[in-house]
Amino acid sequence: MNDAATRPHPNSAPEATGQADAMAPRSVDQKLHATLARLTGGISPAALMVAWTDWAAHAALSPDRQRAMVSAMGAGVGTVMMSDPDAQNDPRFADPLWQLPPYSLYRDTFLATQTWWQQALAPMPGLDPKHQRALTFYARQALDMVSPSNFALTNPVVLHRALKTGNASLAQGWQHWLDDAVTTVTGKPRDLGRFKVGQPLAITPGDVVYQNRLVELIRYHP
């Protein structure tokens, strides 16, 4: 018998080891990406960086956009807000208590900043439309998080309710925040015990007509 035929090839063991090493990091990558997805709401940091780089490069080569951004920054708060009718009718600040100082200043400064970013991220020649839409969405989400309506000390409606309830509303809101934080970090579902079929949840007959790993299309019966 030929010994060479029975002996393992010299490169076979390293090749198998190399394949195992190539496969091992994948599970780590998947865990890392899953954790990032939970913490960022599914937003890819790499994709966001690419979009911001695209916008910054084109803005740096657009004197007209730079002039408009600087002009809007130097304009008064009222002037900037007048250019965005939606800002004047923002439902978050509909309560009359927002007309009182210093809360009116918080509101106007936030809305002016929001309008400025909307104008800064408007479509530009050469800027990938997909990146422009993504940045507009991301910027709006980030700005919404720092809205004065989201913080007790800068929201007159929250402070007024806290006085009326003896701070019970603040304690309840804090508990809701903790529940949301735990759900986001752990990925565990919320308390589903209060959702009973036929009570809070409606029962409608139907059929699943299409299903994949992302969506389920249901056709309800008339």
What this model shows, in words?
- The chain has 222 residues and is mainly alpha-helical.
- It has two domains: 11-39; 43-185, no CATH class.
- Helix content is 61%, strand content 5%.
- The chain has ten helices and two strands.
- The protein has a two-stranded antiparallel sheet with strand order 1-2.
- The longest helix has 29 residues, at 12-40.
- It is extended and about 60 Å long.
- The termini are far apart.
What's the arrangement of secondary structure elements?
Blueprint lengths: L2 H4 L5 H29 L4 H16 L2 H12 L2 H6 L2 H4 L14 H18 L8 H17 L10 H10 L2 H19 L19 E6 L4 E5 L2
Antiparallel strand pairs: 1-2
Number of strands: 2
* Poorly predicted spans: 12-20
Q: What is the typical, i.e. mean, pLDDT?
A: 82
The first-to-last residue Cα distance is 77 Å
Structural class: mainly alpha
User: How many distinct folded domains?
Assistant: 2
* Fraction of residues in β-strands: under 5%
> Strand order, biggest sheet?
1-2
Major beta-sheet overview: 2 strands, antiparallel
| Helix content range | 55-70%
Which H/E pattern describes the elements?
A: HHHHHHHHHHEE
Oligomer: single chain
Give Rg in angstroms.
27 Å
Q: Counting H and I runs of at least 4 residues, what is the number of helices?
A: 10
Query: How does the overall form come out from the CA principal axes?
Result: extended
